[in-house]
Amino acid sequence: MLDLGRWGARIGSIGDQMERTYEDITRRRRARLSPEVRAQSRVLEQAYDIAAGLIGLRLSHGLTQVELADRCGIDQGDISRIERGATSPTLRTL
Q1: Rg (CA), the chain
Q2: Alpha-carbon dihedral of residues 39, 43, 48, 50, nearest 10 degrees?
Q3: 21-40, pLDDT tens digit by residue?
Q4: pTM for the complete prediction?
Q5: Is residue 93 part of a domain?
Q6: What is the CATH number of the domain that holds 10?
Q7: Residue 83: CB partners within 8 Å, gap ≥ 6?
Q8: Residues of the domain holding 18
Q9: HEC string for 27-86
C-alpha cells in the first residue's frame, strides 16, 4: 500500500465525494427544482416507463408493432407514438 502522508486524507475525502451514486445526484438536483418542473418530470418518467415496458413486452413475445396493434385493435401508429414517447396512452388503450 502506498503511504500518501498528509495528502492521503485529502485524496480520501475527494474519493468519498466521487462515490456518490446517480440516484443521489438526481435526488439532489430534483430537490432544487420548482414543484411544477418536478411534476412535469414525474409525468415524463412515467411515460418513459410505459414506453420501455411496452417495447420490452412486445419484443419478449416476438411481436412487431403491426402484430401488436392488430391484437389490441388499435392503429400501428399509436403503438409507435407510445413507444417513442410522442404520446401518453389513455387508460382505455392500456
Answers
A1: 22
A2: 140
A3: 888 888 888 889 888 988 88
A4: 0.62
A5: no
A6: 1.10.260
A7: 51, 54, 55, 58, 65
A8: 6-84
A9: HHHHHCCCHHHHHHHHHHHHHHHHHHHHHHHHHHCCCCHHHHHHHHCCCHHHHHHHHHCC
